[in-house]
Amino acid sequence: YSFFNPAEKKGYSGVAVYARKKPVSVNTKLGIKRFDKEGRFLELKYPSFTLLNFYLPHGGRQKENLNYKLEVYREVLKRVEKLKNKNAILIGDFNIAHNEVDLARPRQNRNNIMFTPEERKQIDLLLQLGFIDSFRHFNNEPGYYTWWPYAFNARERNLGWRIDYGFVSKAISKTLRKANIYSDIFCSDHCPIGLNLG
């Protein structure tokens, strides 16, 4: 089975899920008009768990874009709070490096988009709801990133950011076996990540 939520504007953004089993329901709306037009969300409900796939806004260089990003995060947190005691998996591009270990040059980027205090707090709030950062559950080492700018040979020099995450609720975390970053796979400026549960 395959499920897609493309942006209304061609070539802009979109998310997809490929699944072996048919879900009970599929939702593409978060409830914010601009966000819902941008193809950034898929929610698949199964009898035993819920999967939420995100491509959250970057935040841009202008204040209004950061405000939009924070508005989206407020809505995301409201949505996932309802799932905190259930089996839930949140996966995708969250466009925030949470801690200094999650980017190659934290000092130089302290007040830059994707690493501002306001943005990093959103991941704090998600963890406070009881969700677990699956990769950090197994690995606290630096040097593991999921996105590299195209400029300055950043990927070759591993000057990256970890902004793609798999979060799991406490309820389902006991089934978490592995969380990987596949940095050797070149398909875009991001690399794939993976979770094994079972």
TrEMBL record:
Its cofactor is Mg(2+); Mn(2+). Residues 7-190 form the Endonuclease/exonuclease/phosphatase domain. InterPro entries: AP_endonuc_1, AP_endonuclease_F1_CS, Endo/exonu/phosph_ase_sf, Endo/exonuclease/phosphatase. The record marks 190 as: Interaction with DNA substrate. The active site is at 55, 93 (proton donor/acceptor), 190 (proton acceptor). Pfam families: Exo_endo_phos. GO terms for biological process: base-excision repair. Probably binds two magnesium or manganese ions per subunit. The keyword Flavoprotein does not apply. The keyword Hydrolase applies. Mg(2+) binds at residues 93, 95, 189-190. Keywords: Hydrolase, Magnesium, Manganese, Metal-binding. Belongs to the DNA repair enzymes AP/ExoA family. This is Exodeoxyribonuclease III. The lineage of its organism: Bacteria, Candidatus Woeseibacteriota.
